Amino acid sequence: MTVESTAQRKTTRGGSKRTTAKKASSAKAKTPDNAADQVEQDQLVQLLTPEGKRVEHPDYAIDLTPEELRGLYRDMVLTRKFDAEATTLQRQGELGLWASLLGQEAAQIGSGRALRDDDYVFPTYREHGVAWCRGVDPTNLLGMFRGVNNGGWDPNSNNFHLYTIVIGSQALHATGYAMGVQKDGADSAVIAYFGDGASSQGDVAEAFTFSAVYNSPVVFFCQNNQWAISEPTEKQTRVPLYQRARGYGFPGVRVDGNDVLACLAVTKAALERARTGQGPMLIEAFTYRMGAHTTSDDPTKYRADEETRAWEAKDPILRLRTYLVAEGVVDDAYLAAVEAESEALGKRVRETVRAMPDPDSMAIFENIYADGHALVDEERAQFAAYQASFADADAVAEEN
Amino acid sequence: MTVFEKITLSKAINASLRASMEADPKVLVMGEDVGKLGGVFRVTDGLQKDFGEDRVIDTPLAESGIVGTAIGLALRGYRPVVEIQFDGFVFPAYDQIVTQLAKMHARALGKVKVPVVIRIPYAGGIGAVEHHSESPEALFAHVAGLKCVSPSNSSDAYWMLQQAIAGDDPVIYFEPKRRYHDKSRLDTEAIPYPLHKARVAQPGSDLTLAAYGPMVKVCLDVAKVAAEEGKSVEVVDLRSLSPIDFDTVQESVVKTGRLVVVHEAPVFLGTGAELAARITERCFYHLEAPVLRVGGFHAPYPPSRLEDEYLPGLDRVLDAVDRALAY
Lengths: 400, 327
Prior knowledge:
The complex is a heterodimer.
Chain A: H1 3-14, H2 17-27, H3 32-41, H4 66-91, H5 105-112, E1 120-122, H6 128-134, H7 138-146, H8 155-158, H9 169-184, E2 190-195, H10 202-214, E3 218-224, E4 227-228, E5 231-232, H11 244-248, E6 252-256, H12 260-275, E7 281-286, H13 305-312, H14 316-327, H15 332-355, H16 374-388, H17 391-399
Parallel strand pairs in A: 1-2, 2-3, 3-7, 6-7
Antiparallel strand pairs in A: 4-5
Helix pairs in contact in A: 1-13, 2-3, 4-5, 4-6, 4-14, 4-15, 5-6, 5-12, 7-15, 9-10
Chain B: E1 3-8, H1 9-23, E2 27-31, H2 47-51, E3 56-58, H3 63-75, E4 79-83, H4 94-101, H5 104-107, E5 117-122, H6 137-141, E6 147-149, H7 154-166, E7 171-176, E8 183-187, E9 199-202, E10 207-211, H8 215-228, E11 233-237, E12 240-242, H9 246-256, E13 259-266, H10 271-283, E14 292-296, H11 307-310, H12 314-326
Parallel strand pairs in B: 2-3, 2-4, 4-5, 5-7, 6-7, 10-11, 10-13, 13-14
Antiparallel strand pairs in B: 1-8, 6-12, 9-11
Helix pairs in contact in B: 1-7, 3-4, 8-12, 9-10
């Protein structure tokens, strides 16, 4: 099977322009207007082609300075490096698990850089690139994957909530937070990240309902990376995901999730809508999970190499670099500097993770309640006494 | 404010919500039908009229959505008081309550607080249809990160709700719906009793009955009948189910030597089981009889024509009292 035909099969599965056009023409006799409408809407919003060619879109313009363009490139390279380091650290036994974002850098950096400081982010467990944009130290993300905590950063320091592992739960938190923003009369926006798998969760559907009913300033950013562990998007939906929004009464748009410029432009527009009282919006970033679901997963069991290779040709970093080099926005010296910075980041990540101590065993009893709880106090005291009962034996062992 | 010699439990809750909303502009009331209608039990009657739609929020009919958005509002600095319409309808929200609400403070290493109060009208005795009479409290008390309380009278209903709202932890507040129209005394200027402390509702010396919520009245009636038979029964109103005030129960059992725990919830793995284990451990040499339990059966809540048989009533509790005293 050629790369091209595999790519075609894959995009068919995701409901691409090509497939939908076919569906649309068959439905034409009944609902010609809707069918035509659908053909148009199923087009990906794209500002940078996989070949690195800049194209315009009638609804989503973007004009970035060379410095901003270089920044996006640097963000993506460093995020990918961090991610690769984490995967390696898991293989070395330093992390219990890692959920790689490989392939989704443009979706995350593009949307992440669209945010204002006062906006608030509710991530899944894979938003390492968004965390980077928010200024969360990447090494803080690793605590939960090493097993020393369940979330090692202060959500309010960077307006970046803790990673949420239960699929889709955070869409409701984002909606509630956005309802609070509304009540405060603030013009901040909230963004909820989730994936194609989460689109099947009731919580995501309920978040759509609540945000639509209250017209809350929340952007739903769905990274459709084509796979929910082993299940392709077609096991989650019969229509392209962005079209779900229409049923709830707010707009949905599909953007090329491997195009950082398009992701940035579309997310900026959605956030602006939210800020100006126009309510929620759904963005479906059409992308691909290049790696395994997590380090515990084995994608060879359920998907073909050809498919992955076809998506390699759409790599988000490669296309931006091609464009930036062609435009003379970056030179070899700049690329080398980013490379060096990336190596240094990798080194820092390795060293920091290896130096992360196991928490004190009494941490089990910490922060369960804000105002305390008699049972926790009792069990803490009992466990401390139990541990202390070994003190004499330890002392003897040391003497010997 | 004032002393009510006779106020219904539901009106006491209404007054409590009103007091909390007046005291703190961040307090919100949200749930299905809580606004215009004032809730299906009218507990929130008039609140939307007085505090506006922005603070008394009629929500879409989606329990997970209600609790999930309440969590988000709490993260933004609000203090949502959520109403789940009936006990049996809480389960769509169970995931949000257990995986998110209960754990978020710990997960954030204490850096965020989620002061959400979830009011659940619970338990039976009102002749309702299926899913409207359940007692799921053990399912919540079992979860670290949650606190669970249940008032048995108007004064506790008034104070405990305000204390729950003022605290920084998530609290499930179980309202004994068959007591909504029971009247008792409320002094809104009294010094409130600690939220998680049990109270001796009726002193006695021969046997301790421990109960909470709707069963406290049954136990007080039992104590009266037993007294006529020359038996002195002490009734402890637990009030809080997480944490449970074992000290007060222990103190009582050390005195009486006998404990019977009474609740509507199924006995198996319930509050009574926990009390039996703890009290046996703490009072082994003071016990004259094993700890007995009276409660629901390991059966779905029955059709309402059978609920009088299913629910612990005067006779079933007296039977357990007699059995305990016979050891």
